[in-house]
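Exam prep: given the inputs below (a chain plus D-xylitol-5-phosphate), describe the expected output before reading on.
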Amino acid sequence: MIAPSILSANFLHLNEAVDMVEKSEADWYHIDVMDGHFVPNISFGFPIIKALGNVVKKPMDIHLMISNPDQYVERFAAFHPKVISVHFEACMHLHRTLQSIKSFGIMGGLAVNPHTSISSISEILERVDLVCLMGVNPGFGGQKFILETLRKIKHLTAIREERNLNFLIEIDGGVDENNSASLFKAGADVLVAGSAVFKSPNPLKTIEKLKNNKSTS
Ligand code: DX5
Ligand code: ZN
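Solution:
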């Protein structure tokens, strides 16, 4: 699956971004919420997501890069997204936070910073519906993919197989036409792409390529 990140869209013409995504082979909208505290950037909040939620037909995948996500789960749940992901590094009581997301019938996602090892999240894997491995340090679009992420995808895929679990693996940050095939091959199910899609002269074609490129390695 492909989830274009709205963060890289032209905010004066969000309707055009929505039209493009609906027409495309993309599967989800990736929605990046930043608070200027957990990450050194501020993106957008409730009014934008509400406006999007009123018009989109494809599911929304909300990525909370915020401190104290528990405080806001209910407000984001009101937009009926498919997924809400919270950061491992932002949660003191992760079981409780995931339980609260899932109590609204929403997939509980766990986002993981580049420096956080797969062994740190091992004990929660039975409780997550999706693990979002960051391919960059969260906070900004358009950064270069951190290569060690590939090793983390393989490690997580192996654990998933070994324990017979069925959470989705999502990769967020630095995804482009050159690495998409190898990320899928390593075990990823969902690729988030911001600048690769929205800075492309032909976003529809780029989404098609991200989704269907075959690995050569
Ligand atoms: C980064 C965000 C990403 C970002 C990806 O903090 O979580 O979702 O929009 O952007 P690209 O694809 O440009 O790296
Ligand atoms: Zn994101």
